[in-house]
Amino acid sequence: DQQVKQNSPSLSVQEGRISILNCDYTNSMFDYFLWYKKYPAEGPTFLISISSIKDKNEDGRFTVFLNKSAKHLSLHIVPSQPGDSAVYFCAASYMAGTALIFGKGTTLSVSS
Amino acid sequence: KAGVTQTPRYLIKTRGQQVTLSCSPISGHRSVSWYQQTPGQGLQFLFEYFSETQRNKGNFPGRFSGRQFSNSRSEMNVSTLELGDSALYLCASSQRPGTGTIGNTIYFGEGSWLTVV
Prior knowledge:
The complex is a heterodimer. Chain A has strands at residues 4-5, 10-14, 19-25, 32-38, 45-51, 56-59, 62-67, 72-77, 86-93, 101-102, 106-111. By secondary structure, chain A is an all-beta fold. In chain A, the strands form 2 sheets. In chain A, strands 2, 4, 5, 9, 10 and 11 form a 6-stranded mixed beta sheet that branches. A 5-stranded antiparallel beta sheet of chain A has the order 1-3-8-7-6, with no helix packed on it. In chain B, the strands form 2 sheets. In chain B, strands 2, 4, 5, 6, 9, 10 and 11 form a 7-stranded mixed beta sheet that branches. In chain B, strands 1-3-8-7 form a 4-stranded antiparallel beta sheet, with no helix packed on it.
């Protein structure tokens, strides 16, 4: 049973526009959420994270929103750039642990 | 500073054989985790080590094992290989266990591609 779901396998966006990647989770015990970006033949690269005590965290062009009541989080990229084209993974964990539960990823394509 | 280093990067094994994969964490990092990535199941947690002790284990059969050495380097072993073990095996390291600690980012290596024929 998938505890972390990314229901959109792919997303296409024009350069300069906003990219919104979504993630849902089922386990209410998760208290820390992370986004990773992955290029082919490379390992995942950490982007941004958020703890369950917050509802928003920003880092440059990346903002993550958390809606605990809906068990939903989203990653906003503004403005989108062609170099953002990659697979984006949502992951959840318990703060005290290091085991990450990943979604299956969303492939973002940003066209110029 | 050097990132997480995994060896070998690519390997081909035959069903029934065993394989050992190696991981050198970022200098100063003492927590090492392993993940398996397959097209069907995505990224799945295998196990986590800290101070040479396994702290957590994912839902994988006993054929999958690992260990950590005193210098924090880690190895994982898969015995009696099956075709379904073909995957990208990723190692990740962090300074210490726990994802919620400020500054305790989990960094991934580039992975070891295992093909079982």
